[in-house]
Model the fold of this input.
Amino acid sequence: MTKHNWFYSQLFTNWKRFEVIYVTILILLQLAVFAIVPDSPIGMISGVAGVICLVYGMKGRKISFIFGFIQCVAMTYVAWISHAYGSFAMDIVYVISQPIGWYLWGRQQQTHSFQPGTRKKVFFGAFLAWAIGWWVLAGVGGQLPYFDSINFVISFIAQVLYVLKYNENWSLWIFVNVANFVYWSILSVQMMMGDNTIGTLGANLSQVALQAALLFNAIYAQKVWSSGEANNEGGAA
Done:
């Protein structure tokens, strides 16, 4: 049996054909958006790194946090120029959470779940936090605060659960990704119609493509984590 180094094992081992195909399609989607509207290389970098990060996260692999750091730094800039203040605040949290996740995933190889009663309390708390965040962001003049609040609070809860390897993180990410897809789509349409001049069209479209990719990945990841396939670094450890 050939023994590979850690990076090779993390990057290339134990992939299903379906996973290789869908990862390739999602990355090509990001590159296609940039080819159509090449005004935001940072948006493209954020999109590609985000896809790679979450795909390795789906497989439960620690290396996802390296790509996550790149994606979060790039996305922080995109959110700032787009006045997406909830996203901007959360992207700073994401940057900080990457080394924390790297450390914790090195110590915890197994995924786990809440008891049903606790799960309901977590989801109710996320809903309540969203409402409060909506009120705060509306007060500071953020764009589409009812959507941006999802980035500001529910994403935070989902990220904490992700770092701690709770399966429920993917349920919250599905909700977040749907909301983000709608959010960035609205901003893109507004910009194309001339109703919004904040940010760039390429950066907005790159986020539309990214959120579509992350939504698909979150749905698939929920299945993978629930089955235990993501334990022990998805067979790459």
